Amino acid sequence: MTDTAPRPAVMSDESPTTDVRRIGPAFRTSHPLASGPVVQPAPTVDGFVETFLGELNYGQGTLLSQSTVNDQYLALARTVRRYLMADWLETGTRRRQTQQKTVGYLSAEYLLGRQLGNNLLATNLQDIAQVAMERCGIDIATLRAQEVEPGLGNGGLGRLAACFVDSLATMDVPCIGYGIRYEYGIFRQTFEADRQVEVPDSWLSLGNPWEFPHPERQVLVSFGGSTETTTDADGRERCTWTPDWQVIGMPYHYMVPGHRNGVVNTLRLWSARATQAFDLQIFNSGDYAQAVRAQTTAENISKVLYPEDSTPQGKELRLQQQYFFVACSLHDFIDNTLPADFDLRRLHQRIIFQLNDTHPVIAIPELMRILVDRKGFAWDEAWEITQKCFAYTCHTLLPEALEVWSAELLGRLLPRHLEIIYRINEEFLEEVREAHPGDEMLVRRMSIIAEHPERAVRMAYLATVAASKVNGVAELHSQLLRDKVLPDFSRLWPEKFTNVTNGVTPRRFVRLANRRLSDLLTETIGDGWVTDLDRLRELEPYADDAGFREQFRAVKQANKERLTTLLRVRDGLELPPEAMLDVMVKRLHEYKRQTLKLLHIVSLYDDVVSGRVPAEQVTPRTFVFGAKAAPGYHLAKEIIFLINAVADVVNADPAVAGRLSVAFPANYNVTLAEKLIPAADLSEQISLAGKEASGTGNMKFALNGALTIGTDDGANVEIRRLVGDEHFFLFGMTEPEVEELTARGYTPSAVYESDPQLRSTIDLLASGHFTGGDRQAVAPVVDNLLHQDSFMVLADFRAYLDAQARVDAAYADPDAWSRSAILNVARSGYFSSDRSMRDYLERIWHA
Ligand SMILES: *Cc1c(COP(=O)(O)O)cnc(C)c1O
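A: This is the predicted complex of the input protein with pyridoxal-5'-phosphate.
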């Protein structure tokens, strides 16, 4: 980058002349409509058609007769947008006027899913829009299918953020969701010769009607350079950071509508821009690549989402992304949201920044820098303020997933922040020494700075030291967090640690995804459940009503048929619509144990082809997988290959025709989840106990009437407790048993030797039966299972097969199964993200 950072193209209010184009808030007018929105007339079909055609003609610049599906989709989206706009503007005005505390949700990921359907639901325009489109000769489903979902997240963590902002809007809690507007979201997965191939997700290429750029709120972010400490006139030490280079953060606003309550909150996602588009002198000299180099470097920051899930990426660009978005967000709130004369000693009364995992933790030294270097606070006072303004959510138990940044890199990119972190650490370690004199081992263990293998900053420790509260995401996880991940910290500050069990939004994952079930629920218990999910309890008596069970089964069957049709059209898969639908969808990760599911399938197939079990005795099942693997996670990609290879052979073998089929539709995302989950009979939640922090997929399934087969892990524990043991298929080692086996020494090959069925299953896999005789192709997975098996798949194999036999037996009694499924729905209201938000408000935010 250039040494002399060019002045950014930001027009501030201090612009000395009037002939510059002003971006800042420049005009005031006394027009009667100046301070309130023009309200869209109450929706009617006629009005909707007229607005839609107007958007098509005047917004898209085309005629209905000439328009493409994309034109129509964009015009429909802009029509729906109009019905939200007045509420959005009014919510903004109301939020500015009241002095209520705001939740600043800081998350590097938001896995939003499609917007059109959700916004039609929020505005209660679904039916009007459908009829209006029919009048125009348009099938609204085709337009919905045109939307590319914003895949600005990897999986559970990003989807959680999306559920949380939905709930806060529905509860009318002031919230700004802060994140990154990645130009390319999570890659699109395709399969070639059964192997995952990643295709860039250019989700913005056909236009995005849901975002609003706000150049008047852009922010300048600095990187690199050096710091200098001087003493000012009052004898106080002042630090100045002279950065090397800067980028502009351009905010894009997204509507976050509450459910039919007139509230629309804001999601503010940052896009990186160069301070200067290009260097005209260099351009004129003919070196075009050099002329745009600075621009490319700057804009790379928000170019692409790192496709890693549960494993951190220690890359410089990743750190740039993290600092970029939190620096923009803090600046946005302190300088552009609070009144200019706001007394920052009261900052915590107006904001709580919730750190969604460690990705935004660099916000802590950034706030210290703002307070001390820019606003002139003394260190201690700044620290007091900072501690009250942050809370931290930990999302993992895997030690390898805890983010650590090398001090060398951090110091090079953010020299002032590294100094601040060192000082925070010094003062913290003093506190530890005072509490535990003479225990230097403890001091070293708790230090925010690790010294080996290189000097590095432990971001989870920094978050824990600074945050007012630290929470895990399910009861078991929070307990293990206290006992295993951060035991020294929980002993020092027991009151700092708390739990908030995750949840999912019932709007998207029940009402929108499962219209048939929703209509049945509403007919039966009224529609209050959509915003008060505990009301599902009222369904319990209907579990014993044969007529209701019949209706419930009809809903499930119709959902299965919808899915079968979709997978035929989308993936060319031919699936029997009557079989039990056994679904495992989530990121591909060893700890989640997709291989255990695969071994189950192979063992069933093996039973039949070896003649041990007559095909007629096998419960017809369709196994569905959905999973993306991080592109650099080689073993995960081998597992994907093997699932596809097994699917090919099982689906083509007449010996199991009509009994076993395996589907692995590519590109599992929110849109596909909305189709798959409502159709599922069985939910696979089979992680090794003590490894899955919570899971939220498990909640979506239970709420849609699937029964769970699962380990005692994450939120499975709470699901089982609530729905009841008889309605949940528990298997496998508990977390203490896993610990004990680890301590004893686990030898997977010994398990293999001792269980003939496991041996036969693995031998069939290893023989190359599923890979055209190619034994090499299966070796990476098979060898790993036999010689390493870090997540104890073989150790839980027997228990898993036994539990699956119980599943078969239960499924043979449709009435008992439906009863259990209904009770799963009725007793899962606790897993609404509305409840999670209430818990955050009560235990952490006090907003
Ligand atoms: C809910 C969801 C997840 C999280 O699933 P888990 O089973 O909890 O890991 C991941 N991806 C998508 C698309 C989801 O909707």
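Confidence is low (pLDDT under 50) at residues 1-18. Residues 155-156, 159, 586-587, 668-670, 673, 695-697, 700 surround pyridoxal-5'-phosphate (CB under 6 Å).
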